[in-house]
Amino acid sequence: MKEPSNKGLGKRLFEFFASIKLSVVVLIALAATSVFGTVIQQHREFAVYVGEYGETVARVIRILGLDDMYHSWWFQLLLVLLLVNITFCSLKRLPHAVRLMNYRDPVFDGKPVAIHEKWAKRVKNADVATLAEAIEGVLRRRLRRVYREERDGVVYLLGTRGGWTRMGVYVTHFSLFLFGIGALVGALWGFKGFVNIPEGQSVRQVRLRGGGVKDLGFEVRCDDFEVTFYTDRQGRPTGRPRDYISDLTVLEDGREVLRKRIEVNHPLIYKGIYFYQSSYGQAGGQSAWLTVFGPRRNILFHRRQLLRGETVDLENGDRLALRGLTGDFKGMGPAVEVMLQPAKGDPRSIVVFQAPEGNHRKLGGYVIRLDGVETVMYTGLQVAKDPGVPIIWTGCILITLGSMIAFFLSHRRVWARVRPADRGGVEVFLGGNASRNRIAFERWFADLCTEAQEVFEK
Amino acid sequence: MINDKLFGIAMILYLLATFGYVVYLVHRSKVTGWIGTGLALAGWLVNTAAIAVRWIESHQAGYGYIPLSNMYESMVFFSWSIMLIYLVFERVYGYRAIGAFVAPLGFLGIAVVSLNPAISAEIQPLVPALQSNWLTAHVVTCFFGYAAFAVGFAVSIMYLFRHRTEARLGKDAPGILPPAKVLDDLAYKSVAVGFPLLTLGILTGAAWANYAWGTYWSWDPKETWSLITWFVYAAYLHARFTAGWRGVRLAWLSVIGFGCVIFTYWGVNFVLSGLHSYAG
After folding, report:
1. Which of A69, A327, A343, B256 has the most CB atoms at less than 10 Å from its CB?
2. Which of residues 167-206 of B touch A (CB under 8 A)?
């Protein structure tokens, strides 16, 4: 008693999950519920919702997870339900589709074959074998594969083309799975964070969006940050930003391994981690850009950015320290005070102006040039790693190819029967069907019949 | 600037084409049909020229970008896409009557932004976020999809009118619109063209977002509404292919789908806010 009812339930469950009605209902439910998340603000404090909708509604919002709707259990359940539905639909339909794809029986009399287009013709003064061969030639030209069977003096032919296109819809549906898997992989093994790096400094950790910090395993230094502006026809800056640019250096154990200039739309990629230009600001304080020539007029460093108090190595153990800097020294423009600390002897300081007359200053055997003083900026970077992305891209390619195949290509089959007619001569019958796009097939079939007609006349 | 004057001419030609097609609906003479098509084609050519001129003018202004970056540019491109898809449909399927319902959409696209003082027609430099080759791929695929859905919408509206006539007077009822069965099929064809394009539009958007923002999907209102639209048309196609829906219910689904397109495009910009706040 128990067994048949169990089986009945199993079957009914299968029918439920495999029903196209469920697909349409779930799709419409997903569409309708998605609206909430675009109308109700997401990821806000409870108080924000109380302020906007009142205490009661705010509680409902929180209980239903409408403040983070797309990650709420019920929305995810709808997405899973869609995937389950697709699986069951595919299980139900795929065997039949494979049978149709591989169908190669030329004998159609008395078989459940849906023939949509028909054409028949009686040809006098002809024999079955010759006409069958002629038809076979036509089918071979127009379709890929031709199968032949002879039975009681009657020749049956089947020409078929594009059977594989029946798989397009399954490829499309499979790609939706890849989206699900890709998103899961990203959620499990990826991270999203952000970090602000002042010019001249480096970081090893980033703050995660969901809270907490993540150690990168290497350091990223910001060498320079710059905003460029559009200029008008006279070449004057307009104040409209053209681009945000950061010069970044990746350091492994203090060793430089990669330098990259990033800008909006062009990130730095290192070890699968992406660094995107996303914001900027003033880090506080100023920095000076210096160029230093050695005793033999050799360039020791060119346009190097130094912060107040920073010290750099010159030659033979000599060191140079930036003691002070200002954007405007008593109305004479930007200026710095640098101090030479020779390996032997007493330190000496001088002031270097950016203004042309004070542009080069000798200090010891060195020549020091001030290229500019500017406010120290920080660059704001989004940092992300998502190992699910390749899976998502595979899904993208498959859904594109799959839906193109499903919508615009079709499986075409044409059966032919050549047999002696009752009143003498030979009767030729052509019949065909297509899995999609019947109207185009109608025209194509008419064309094929015209060609067959021409062959008979010869 | 010459480009906005050209857009104005295209707009007027689309309006005249609408009248031409309406006269054709009533009169059914070959000549009026040709006049309608001729005006629509002329409008489309001027529209094309206007986009090209705007491109050149953006270079002259020193910015140099493909004009697909703001509400004005996207709307005139929307009109261009609608008329292109329609003219191809007219050529392939030979039903000119649809023009009476599609040409006004082409006209409206330009009219809404040209006559609205709140929308600037000025060529403005591209903000850094939009400086990417993905912009062109993303906008073109999206708007071709939108345009195919617009044609589907126009045909579905015609279907609903025609269906009422046929329900009262029978299948061979006299009337100025094509038979309901033909309209039903044409509406489906538009959606079948639009759907893969919208899919590509969403995918190129995701690819770009991943490259520029580090996330291929972030549920911002624009993304979500494009997905809502995608769900509605996916439901449409499944209802038709597999569940065997035809006729009125499907026509309404097509109308709702196009409502979603318009909300994705306009509603999100003006009602909601999000990452796409700069553009159409």
Report:
1. A69
2. 185, 192-193, 195-196, 199-200, 203, 206
Q: Are residues A113 and A257 in the same domain?
A: no
- Are residues A70 and A37 part of one domain? yes
Please identify, among A333, A361, A376, the residue that sits at the C-terminal boundary of a domain.
A376
CA distance A129 to A134: 9
The residue among A91, A115, A146 that closes a domain is A91
Q: Complex ipTM, two decimals?
A: 0.83
Query: For residue A96, is it within any domain?
Result: no
With beta carbons under 8 A apart, name residues in chain B contacting A274. Answer: 214
Cβ contact, residue pair A28, B215, below 8 Å: no
Mutate to test the interface with A, among B95, B217, B261, B273 (most CBs of A within 10 A): B217
Q: What global pTM score does this model have?
A: 0.82
Let me know whether A385 and A414 are in one domain: no
- pLDDT by residue for chain A (458 residues), tens only, comes to 444 455 688 889 898 999 888 988 998 899 899 988 888 888 888 998 998 899 999 999 999 999 888 889 999 999 999 999 999 999 999 999 999 999 999 999 888 888 889 999 888 888 888 889 999 999 999 998 999 999 888 999 999 999 999 999 999 999 999 999 999 999 899 999 999 999 888 999 999 987 889 999 999 999 989 888 887 777 777 778 888 999 999 999 989 999 999 988 889 999 989 999 988 888 877 888 888 888 888 888 887 888 888 888 888 888 898 888 887 888 888 888 889 888 888 888 888 888 676 577 888 888 888 888 888 889 999 999 999 999 999 999 999 999 989 888 999 999 999 999 888 889 999 999 998 877 788 889 999 999 988 888 77
d(CA A240, CA B194): 37
- Nearest C-alpha in B relative to A31: B228
Angle, vertex CA B200, rays to CA B197 and CA B202, nearest 5: 110
Q: What is the rounded distance in angstroms from the CA atom of residue B212 to the CA atom of residue B222?
A: 16
Asked if residue A257 and residue A217 are part of one domain, the reply reads: yes
Domains identified in chain A, total number: 4
Going by the DSSP 8-state scheme, the letter that residue B67 receives in this structure is S
Domain ranges in chain B are: 1-126, 142-280
Decide: A330 and A319 in contact? Cβ < 8 Å. Answer: no
What are the angstrom distances between the C-alpha of A175 and each of A87, A200, A379, A398?
A: 12, 45, 38, 6
Regarding whether A390 and A269 lie in a shared domain, the answer is: yes
Of A35, A242, A264, the CB nearest to B212: A264
CB contact under 8 A, A233 and B216: no
